[in-house]
Amino acid sequence: xxxLDYHIGVTTTDxxxxxxGGALRPVGAHRYITPNTPRPTEIFSQMAxxxxxxxxxxxxxxxxxxxxxxxxxxxxxxxxxFFRDEAALxxxxxxxxxxxxxxxxxxxxxxxxxAEFIQYLNTLKADPEIPVTVSAIAGPPxxxxxxxxxxxxxxxxxxxxxxxxxxxxGPHSPDGSERGAFYSxxxxxxxxxxxxxxxxxxxxxxxxxxxGVPDLVSLAVYVDTPDEVSWEGIAVGELPxxxxxxxxxxECEARGAAACFAYEYDPQRNAIWLLDFTPPPESVIRVxxxxxxxxxxxxxxxxxx
Length: 305
Known about the structure:
With 305 residues, the protein is α/β, with parallel strands linked by helices. It has helices spanning 40-48, 60-69, 73-78, 114-122, 162-168, 191-202, 245-255, and strands at 89-94, 132-138, 182-184, 207-209, 220-224, 230-235, 259-266, 271-275, 284-288.
């Protein structure tokens, strides 16, 4: 609906026995799905039904790392064109076990660590405005799926350290909106999970990096939408501590603005976070401020619109 230019690919958590080792699973001539792929739902369904014939030692993050770094000729051929420097990257793990990438001796990533993988993802994009997130559908801490004896779900292990990856990859917005999410594989109905994942991966970004350190008194944030509505930002410090939509609307009316949203300034990142508000496609975010004379320039990035 947002006319996004997307790539969707599938690989397995097996890096030792099947030969995939991070290569995308092709269906016919389709190595990954794009807006031009015919019958995308059918193609994705075939890509995602990977079977149960792979290694018992699941090495999910190692497989993801190999998909991106493409260390072999086979992966280079299969995954060619999938990764794009300028595109957001969202990795979704679906697994009923913990990640053995760094403990299984036959894993290509043996001897490395989850912390190194997290660091790799957090520095993968040169532009900090481009999101990189990790989500997981896995066994929830602390004990996985607690079912009756003999139920297949009773064998589901805790999805560690996928939970650490979810929590530590990507920018940490005040409301958590820029990170991925951890979902329980024990749920009978995955429809709400998939809805959330679809919205999270397709949503427009809500962070604006500034090129100079602002004098906060002068800071003003606006969103101009394609339907010619100008939304005015209200700093959370100007609202009640536990404000709700009614408090935001009341402050908006007092200012005589047509529409308002809340925002928070992050001094560590020198960035503006739009809270609980995603601008419609093709909106322009305007940030106006006077530079602090005692701060000088920063190494931040300006938001281009």
